[in-house]
């Protein structure tokens, strides 16, 4: 079940202990809030899932917990039905007791584009801002991160994460907190901070970069992935209304503009390490995400344009360092 006390215990004796000045009050307020309509229903599902857990956890090249055949066919079917209660599953995939959660996104493809370019995660404290279901948190842990913390305001994604965590025996070094980045105090304690797929959802991207920087220790690494457009350092697309049907997209910079913003915020050693067009193989409808997806958001006769007429989604990964003299 959702349990923040174990996180408090883990950080009490760590370099994140100062977070305890503000975090418990914030999470108590979250727990007492009336905002999360379906949360009681999802918590009942999490309770039912407590009887399933496995020691077989493979986090290296995938997120696999429990092996096919480890539980009976009847229990597997029951588990599958319980996991479907958390529809829509957007970020994954997960393999749980032989059940393949084929999520809307091949988040493993994004990880494959990011991982070769970042400092090794072994023994690091990592923060994943906007972690979704927590898929990448598990991959970070699989790379040897000492502590992987995800933040995301979505109660559904918290429940998806908690389901996976319970099934794998509640790893005490992987946590999800239902907070937005703007709610964090400047912790200046993480070795690596990830912001993947979040910047364009923020109304103030420069403030977002400063908030990310505030979470890094001196010399720590920022890994930022975002939608981009072609153009020079002064090119930024601000959609009139929706972009690829998303109603919360604000700023899509060119790579040169993104690099300029990062430098302006004081990041050092700023570089773009990957650029990729998002395909309808990477983001699509599945049995686990039955709503519309990218194919429905592109012009039927011109997939290089969104249905609003903007350039189709293209994403880039940037890596930068927080200097030690800040
Ligand atoms: C496009 S998804 C990206 C998920 C994952 N990081 C990835 O790259 O696959 C954006 C995520 O950011 C979360 N988000 C939105 N506003 C946020 C905020 N203010 N702070 C942290 N996360 C936020 C959303 O709930 C959503 O899960």
Automatic annotation (TrEMBL):
Which GO molecular function entries does the Swiss-Prot or TrEMBL record give? methyltransferase activity; transferase activity, transferring alkyl or aryl (other than methyl) groups
Q: What is its EC number?
A: 2.5.1.-
- Keywords on this record? Methyltransferase, Transferase, tRNA processing
Check the record and name the InterPro entries matching this protein.
CmoB, Mo5U34_MeTrfas-like, SAM-dependent_MTases_sf
Q: Which residues cross the membrane?
A: none
tRNA processing as UniProt keyword: yes
Tell me the GO BP annotations in alphabetical order.
methylation; tRNA wobble uridine modification
Query: Where, by residue number, does carboxy-S-adenosyl-L-methionine bind?
Result: 91, 105, 110, 130, 152-154, 196, 200, 315
Which Gene3D superfamilies does this UniProt record tie to the protein? Vaccinia Virus protein VP39
Please give the catalytic activity noted in the UniProt record: carboxy-S-adenosyl-L-methionine + 5-hydroxyuridine(34) in tRNA = 5-carboxymethoxyuridine(34) in tRNA + S-adenosyl-L-homocysteine + H(+)
This protein's record includes keyword tRNA processing: yes
Could you name the domain of life of the organism this protein comes from? Bacteria
Q: Subunit info?
A: Homotetramer.
NCBIfam families, alphabetized: PRK15068.1 (NF011650), tRNA 5-methoxyuridine(34)/uridine 5-oxyacetic acid(34) synthase CmoB (TIGR00452)
Q: Which family does it belong to?
A: Belongs to the class I-like SAM-binding methyltransferase superfamily. CmoB family.
Known function: Catalyzes carboxymethyl transfer from carboxy-S-adenosyl-L-methionine (Cx-SAM) to 5-hydroxyuridine (ho5U) to form 5-carboxymethoxyuridine (cmo5U) at position 34 in tRNAs.
Q: What is this protein called?
A: tRNA U34 carboxymethyltransferase
Q: Which organism is it from?
A: Tolumonas osonensis
- Gene designation: cmoB
């Amino acid at each position: 079940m959702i349990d923040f006390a174990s996180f408090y215990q883990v950080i009490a004796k760590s370099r994140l202990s100062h977070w305890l000045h503000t975090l418990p009050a914030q999470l108590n307020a979250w727990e007492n809030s009336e905002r999360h309509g379906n949360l009681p229903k999802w918590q009942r599902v999490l309770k039912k899932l407590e009887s399933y857990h496995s020691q077989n956890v493979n986090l290296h090249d995938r997120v696999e917990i429990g092996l096919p055949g480890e539980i009976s066919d009847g229990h597997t079917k029951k588990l599958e039905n319980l996991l479907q209660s958390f529809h829509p599953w957007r970020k994954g995939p997960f393999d749980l007791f032989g059940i393949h959660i084929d999520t809307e996104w091949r988040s493993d493809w994004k990880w494959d584009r990011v991982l070769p370019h970042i400092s090794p995660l072994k023994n690091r404290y990592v923060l994943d801002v906007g972690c979704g279901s927590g898929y990448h948190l598990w991959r970070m842990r699989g790379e040897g991160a000492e502590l992987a913390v995800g933040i995301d305001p979505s109660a559904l994604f918290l429940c998806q994460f908690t389901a996976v965590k319970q099934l794998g025996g509640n790893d005490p070094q992987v946590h999800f907190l239902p907070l937005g980045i703007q709610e964090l105090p400047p912790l200046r304690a993480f070795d690596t901070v990830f912001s993947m797929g979040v910047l364009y959802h923020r109304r103030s991207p420069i403030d977002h970069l400063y908030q990310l920087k505030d979470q890094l220790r001196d010399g720590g690494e920022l890994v930022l992935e975002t939608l981009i457009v072609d153009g020079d350092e002064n090119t930024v697309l601000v959609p009139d209304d929706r972009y690829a049907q998303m109603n919360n997209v604000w700023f899509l910079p060119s790579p040169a503009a993104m690099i300029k913003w990062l430098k302006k915020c004081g990041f050092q050693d700023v570089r773009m390490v990957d650029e990729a067009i998002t395909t309808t193989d990477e983001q699509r409808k599945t049995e686990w995400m039955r709503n519309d997806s990218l194919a429905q958001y592109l012009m039927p006769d011109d997939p290089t344009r969104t249905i609003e007429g903007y350039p189709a989604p293209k994403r880039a990964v940037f890596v930068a360092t927080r200097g030690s003299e800040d």
